[in-house]
Design goal:
By secondary structure, the protein is an alpha+beta fold. It is built from 7 helices and 17 strands. The strands form 3 sheets. It has a 6-stranded mixed β-sheet with strand order 1-3-4-9-6-2, with no helix packed on it. Strands 12, 13, 14, 15, 16 and 17 form a 6-stranded antiparallel β-sheet that branches. Strands 7-8-5-10-11 form a 5-stranded antiparallel β-sheet, with no helix packed on it. A hairpin with a 5-residue loop joins strand 15 and strand 16. The longest helix is centred in the C-terminal third of the chain and has 12 residues. The termini are close together.
Length: about 350
């Protein structure tokens, strides 16, 4: 099965001390209840399309060493990089109710500057960032964590949204924190503590990529300015797309016909066999496309960009283990990006 090849950019380091590595983003969606369309599709497709996952190997850690590890090491043993992307942790404290902006798109402010003394290399405090994301119905919710190895002060976080997107609902759970547009200010973060900032990313047009995250400016406990660090994550199509369940076979045709100028075509090859579940999983995992109707060896699928509601439509014709796909939207560039991502391999 062809699946998405997610490539995420590193976002900077701290004099070579902090490096970055990204892990696979959180899977979206769960098992779907079979529909009549899926039953019809069983007459069209064959195969199970299963795929084995690679297991990560690693040596065992000594229990005695863990017991003797310092609290900072315990807090960071799973954060071996400056920027780690993981699934949202529902048990972590929410930033809701803390300092926050309004629900409207926030205003970008100037990058903070400092004329204070600079920290010498031995006095630079290592800081790690942690990015968690959780798709909401109308936006992508993001939590940006800052965790220092030692106490830091005068922390300023400049949040960034990808092109053709806007930040919304910025909030911070740190004591005495304040929010001004895309700037979050925190007087002090203790050693090994995590200061969480939460915000939403809303599409304003047809986003085609870019990075989101933040740049962290801070001082050590002596008030000496440390080099800023950045934590960032690449925006994916699935981050701004949701299934367009309101689209039906009757409404698909007129909408699809009116988007001819925004067409892109791709043949998706499934090496391990093509089944209803394999097709839906593939187009759903990459672009949140939802199959809306099946007729013979043809089916139609739809997604929409949130919160603007722009439709992205797909007409798929099955030919053996190949899915000949036509993508249409009101942006040819966006349709081309979607087509390329649907055809990505492991």
């Amino acid at each position: 099965e062809d699946v998405q090849d997610t490539t995420e950019e590193a976002a900077g380091n701290n004099n070579g001390e902090n490096t970055e590595e990204h892990v696979d983003p959180m899977a979206v969606g769960g098992p779907m209840k079979p529909t009549k369309n899926e039953k019809f599709m069983n007459d069209i497709f064959g195969g199970d399309g299963t795929k084995k996952k690679k297991k990560r190997k690693g040596g065992d850690r000594a229990e005695e060493a863990l017991r003797r590890a310092q609290e900072a090491e315990k807090a960071t043993r799973d954060m071996t990089t400056e920027n780690t992307v993981v699934a949202i942790d529902p048990t972590a404290p929410s930033a809701a109710g803390a300092s926050s902006s309004t629900g409207a798109a926030v205003v970008n402010v100037s990058t903070p500057t400092s004329s204070g003394p600079k920290a010498s290399p031995e006095n630079i405090v290592k800081v790690q960032t942690n990015i968690q994301k959780n798709p909401a119905p109308d936006c992508l919710r993001v939590r940006f964590g800052v965790m220092p190895a030692a106490e830091i002060r005068n922390v300023r976080i400049m949040l960034r949204a990808p092109p053709k997107c806007a930040l919304t609902g910025v909030a911070c759970n740190a004591p005495k924190s304040s929010v001004n547009g895309n700037l979050v200010e925190i007087p002090m973060v203790p050693a090994s503590a995590v200061a969480w900032t939460e915000f939403g990313i809303r599409a304003e047009d047809f986003p085609q990529g870019g990075m989101y995250g933040g740049e962290v400016f801070y001082c050590n406990a002596k008030g000496e300015e440390c080099p800023p660090i950045r934590g960032a994550q690449a925006l994916q199509l699935i981050d701004v797309l949701r299934p367009a369940n309101a689209v039906t076979g009757e409404t698909f045709g007129p909408s699809f016909g009116g988007m001819a100028a925004g067409e892109s075509r791709v043949q998706i090859k499934f090496n391990d066999g093509l089944s209803p579940d394999v097709l839906q999983k593939h187009i759903g995992t990459i672009g949140n496309l939802s199959i809306r109707q099946v007729r013979g060896k043809e089916c139609v699928a739809a997604a929409q960009i949130v919160p603007v509601g722009h439709l992205v439509l797909a007409h798929i014709t099955v030919d053996g283990n190949n899915a000949n796909t036509i993508i249409r939207s009101n942006s040819k560039e966006f349709s081309e990006v979607m087509a390329r991502m649907l055809n990505k391999k492991d």
